[in-house]
Amino acid sequence: MNKKPNKMGEMPELLTVSPSPHIKTSDSTRSVMIDVLIALLPAYIWGVFMFGIRALVVGVISVAACVIFEALVQKLLKRPVTVSDCSAAVTGLLLAMNVTAAVPLWMPVVGAFFAIVVVKQLFGGIGKNIVNPALAARVFLFSWASEMTTYVAPGNRISSLAVTLGDADVVAGATPLASLGGGTLPEATLGDMFIGNIGGCIGEVSSLLLLLGGVYLLVRRVITWHIPVAYLGTVAVLTYLFPQVTNSLSFMLYELMAGGLIIAAVFMATDYATSPLTPIGRIIYGVGCGVITVLIRYFGGYAEGASFAVLIMNLLVWYLDILGMPKRFGAVKKKKQKKADA
């Protein structure tokens, strides 16, 4: 294309390209994290209502430890202190929601150290971690398996602030996921599962409030539908087609609402730093999470598979982004280019 001079005799530029980012928004890390906190709070408050003041104490300790560790490590490494962006608070709240109210009070501190120092800051800080910090910390805390699997029965509100709890202070109850793993439907009704009148971790019991939190994030455009729908949809299809009891529909619904599946699909798998950027990559990622979750639940020695599934798929995000990358505008395939050059 030939350039033509304008009326002033000047040769105009055909195209001016500015450096990225090309799309600007008023959103910031802080605003996004505040939205996530708002979406998480209803399910967490319900957990405090179901399991008592100790659930609140576990959350406060977890959030405070994450914020303190982040500030200390950033000071030590001579980086800007960024705790005001609320990302450490989100990690702390997610960690608290993924443990039981009966855990010793030192365990959230250990989990916070692993999440913030080892998984996040040693890899360079926010946006540079390769796996979700809260999920990695939760899996690390299974080094103390008995403490992590002492689930409080629904409605047993623990008020003790002791560092550790004796057996007399906790009324343990089997979780619905444990019953499903044994090939039987839980005693809890589907209504109890949906509302959250069941035993489990602090923030995973109310499917209703977790889904409402997901809707809020979708409306606020903090997350997209691709990962949650692909993840939950895959689990729904597989558990319906290959149920472990005779009632396929009931088994599927129980599997969807049991354990940490919904909180993982909505809040963990959608983490910006550890999920794909492209729509195709996100769908493949969600399907992969769903398949691995079902495989672990069906054939693994541990009833819950969501945490491990998300962490495994976190490690494949780079490849999924390449696989889902759209064709560059004007790009010519190498073979065609070679023929044209010849």
SSE layout and pairing:
Blueprint: H1 29-51, H2 53-76, H3 87-97, H4 107-120, H5 133-141, H6 145-148, H7 176-181, H8 190-195, H9 207-219, H10 226-241, H11 248-257, H12 261-268, H13 279-299, H14 306-314, H15 317-324, H16 334-341
Helix pairs in contact: 1-2, 1-3, 1-9, 2-3, 2-4, 3-4, 3-5, 4-5, 5-14, 9-12, 10-11, 10-12, 10-13, 13-14, 13-15
Give a written overview of the molecule.
It is a single chain. 56% of the residues lie in helices and 0% in strands. It has helices at residues 29-51, 53-76, 87-97, 107-120, 133-141, 145-148, 176-181, 190-195, 207-219, 226-241, 248-257, 261-268, 279-299, 306-314, 317-324, 334-341. The radius of gyration is 23 Å and the shape is globular. It has 16 helices and no strands. The model has no long low-confidence stretch (mean pLDDT 87). The protein starts with 28 loop residues before the first helix and ends with a helix. α3 crosses α4 (107-120), α10 (226-241) packs antiparallel against α12 (261-268) and α13 (279-299) packs across α14 (306-314). The longest helix has 24 residues, at 53-76. It has one domain (29-324): Orthogonal Bundle (Ammonium transporter fold), CATH 1.10.3430. The protein has 342 residues and is an all-alpha fold.
